[in-house]
Design a protein that fits this description.
Keywords: Signal. This is Formylglycine-generating enzyme, required for sulfatase activity, contains SUMF1/FGE domain. GO terms for molecular function: formylglycine-generating oxidase activity. The protein has 360 residues and is α+β, with helices and mostly antiparallel strands. The chain has one domain: Alpha-Beta Complex (paralog of FGE (formylglycine-generating enzyme)). It is built from 8 helices and 13 strands. A 4-stranded mixed sheet has the order 11-10-9-12. A 3-stranded antiparallel sheet has the order 1-4-13, with no helix packed on it. The protein has a two-stranded antiparallel ribbon with strand order 2-3. The longest helix is centred in the first third of the chain and has 15 residues. It starts with 9 loop residues before the first helix and ends with a strand.
């Protein structure tokens, strides 16, 4: 089967990319694993010895993410390629400082068992390999379109609510701007415009699953607690350390973080569990049904612009925020953040990563 988008020159480079990646990422990471054996509180870190000597994805800077092929070392040879292992542990699920539906239930103490998790969002290159191997047709392709973000004009803002969202006929994971667009230059970006069913199909192809909300948040918090988790992520120099919106949403993005729209995976430093982009860039599907107080959709209900008469499917929990979250809109660039999204509604700001749970 051929790819439904142009890959001239790229398919031939995959072998070269893989060889380069294998050589570059073959560093044992023994020292890194040892350094992460204990967290900042002196407790044993969930990033454990199973990661020792594994070829972890080497990202964390603009130069590295731009050069990344989108395929981790030993892709399709190692069933855990591109993943790290976290042993089970206790943590506080939720936040007392965020929105009402983020409040912990009771004392919030939650335990998760050990699991492997992707270091990055699943990329367009990875999803393309899945499609090529299985001839899978995504829900957006079946439905004939997807919800796409664009910067609205003043006239559009005056004409309708949620003017930044549009249902674009022909938009899909491999045609991100609609008919005529393709993935040239985007293979290392998170795959988006896929539904929860699409994400599960990919995960099951690899013998994996989507994370539960608790597993995702455990990984996103990376052993930390406290008020810092609920502030906009910035590094020691005050620069944004994730891809989220700076400026006035939806008309002015000052590009302080270096990316106006989706960024390649891994452009920012990993968290203490060696996971990239747990905050910002693209929301991520979980396998959990959304429950809790249903707040007004001040941050935009994508279902509102879907074709009239379209059935609204079960709302599922998505986590982590996206490139559209700003201080005046959404404010969900935090590990405890959660939002609901109809399971069968593809949108341009939602991706996913997979997990592989330890045998019980």
């Amino acid at each position: 089967m051929s790819f439904p988008f142009k890959l001239e020159g790229r398919a031939a480079l995959y072998g070269t990319y893989a060889a380069i990646a294998a050589a570059a990422f073959a560093v044992a990471f023994t020292a890194a694993a040892a350094a992460n054996a204990f967290d900042s509180g002196g407790q044993q870190s969930a990033f454990d010895s199973l990661n020792r000597s594994r070829p972890l994805v080497a990202l964390g800077s603009e130069r590295q993410c731009e050069r990344y092929s989108g395929l981790p070392a030993r892709w399709r040879d190692d069933p855990k390629a591109g993943m790290v292992h976290l042993h089970g542990g206790n943590f506080i699920l939720g936040s007392k400082l965020g929105y009402e539906d983020e409040r912990p239930a009771g004392d919030g103490k939650t335990r998760v068992a050990g699991f492997w998790i992707d270091q990055t969002d699943v990329t367009n290159a990875q999803f393309a390999a899945f499609v090529q191997a299985t001839s899978y047709v995504s829900d957006a392709e079946r439905q004939g379109g997807a919800v796409v973000f664009h910067t609205p004009t003043r006239e559009e803002m005056n004409a309708r609510d949620l003017a930044w969202w549009s249902w674009v006929k022909g938009a899909a994971w491999n045609h991100p701007a609609g008919p005529g667009s393709n993935l040239d230059g985007r293979l290392n970006q998170p795959v988006t415009m896929i539904t929860q069913a699409d994400a599960l199909a990919y995960a099951h192809w690899l013998g994996r699953d989507l994370p539960t909300e608790a597993e995702w948040e455990y990984a996103g918090k990376a052993g930390h607690e406290g008020a810092d988790l609920d502030t906009a992520p910035r590094d020691a120099h005050g620069k944004p350390s994730a891809n989220y919106w700076q400026g006035v949403f939806p008309v002015l993005n000052t590009n302080e973080d270096g990316h106006v729209g989706l960024a390649p995976v891994g452009c920012y430093a990993a968290n203490d569990f060696r996971l990239y982009d747990m905050i910002g860039n693209a929301w991520e599907w979980t396998k959990d049904v959304y429950t809790g107080p249903h707040q007004p959709h001040t941050n935009g209900d994508t279902a509102a612009v879907a074709p009239p008469g379209r059935r609204h499917d079960t709302p599922m929990v998505i986590k982590g925020g996206s490139f559209l979250c700003s201080r005046d809109y959404c404010v969900r660039y935090r590990a405890a953040s959660r939002e609901q999204q109809e399971a069968d509604l593809p949108a341009s700001h939602i991706g996913f990563r997979t997990v592989l749970r330890d045998a019980s």
